[in-house]
């Protein structure tokens, strides 16, 4: 059952590049609004208990997610969807796996570590191959774009590891339903901060932004 639920996530994430339109500002703003509204509706039906500490951590995690997703949206314009998705996914797999092993003690046995690190090595090879460009004159620019994507992916690493941190160090009874709403509030806050700092407040009055709410859903 857990694997089937994971497949639903994969489909949802895979549809995002197909549904977002406009500039990265339009995309991240619409997605933040759509995700927050969806999480609020879920909250109304589930009514999970409110833990202030959990909410604060979840809001921070959501804000950090904004950095990762914004990096993806910007990278779509720089290196394309077909170049961004394999790289971003690879960076997330390697980073999240290392966090799980080094911080949370996952892969406890020697055989698990051997198989796991062999798998990560294969992912790294895939990342290197995916980063290759046919245009020999664009090496420096391509490298900078990849480094930008890697730097912003750190936001995804933090976002992914915070729920595990909450359940293992704060409150073992917390479930995904308990922190999805504050997490999406963090996403909304993160997008608002970005829009204000980038002086793009006009996006809130443009139709393409509200169409991108579908991606947040």
TrEMBL record:
Q: Which InterPro entries match?
A: EmrE-like, Sugar_transport
Task: Indicate where this protein resides in the cell.
Answer: Cell membrane
The main location is membrane
Q: Name one GO cellular component term.
A: plasma membrane
Record keywords = Membrane, Sugar transport, Transmembrane, Transmembrane helix, Transport
Which molecular function terms from Gene Ontology are attached? Answer: carbohydrate transmembrane transporter activity
Transmembrane stretches in the record are: 28-46, 52-71, 110-129, 141-159, 179-197
Keyword Transmembrane helix included in the entry's annotation = yes
Q: What is this protein called?
A: GRP family sugar transporter
């Amino acid at each position: 059952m857990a694997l089937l639920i994971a497949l639903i996530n994969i489909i949802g994430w895979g549809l995002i590049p197909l549904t977002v339109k406009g500039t990265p500002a339009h995309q991240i703003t619409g997605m933040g609004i759509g995700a927050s509204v969806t999480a609020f509706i879920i909250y109304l039906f589930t009514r999970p208990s409110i833990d202030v500490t959990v909410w604060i951590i979840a809001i921070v995690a959501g804000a950090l997610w904004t950095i990762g997703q914004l990096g993806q949206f910007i990278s779509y314009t720089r290196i394309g969807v077909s170049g961004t998705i394999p790289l971003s996914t690879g960076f997330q797999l390697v980073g999240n796996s290392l966090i799980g092993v080094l911080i949370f003690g996952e892969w406890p046995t020697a055989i698990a570590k051997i198989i796991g690190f062999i798998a990560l090595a294969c992912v790294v090879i895939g990342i290197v191959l995916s980063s290759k460009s046919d245009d020999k004159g664009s090496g420096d620019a391509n490298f900078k774009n990849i480094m930008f994507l890697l730097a912003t992916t750190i936001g995804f690493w933090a976002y992914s590891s915070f729920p595990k941190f909450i359940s293992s160090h704060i409150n073992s009874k917390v479930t995904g339903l308990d922190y999805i709403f504050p997490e999406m509030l963090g996403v909304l806050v993160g997008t608002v901060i970005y829009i204000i700092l980038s002086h793009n407040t006009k996006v809130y009055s443009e139709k393409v932004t509200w169409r991108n709410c579908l991606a947040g859903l």
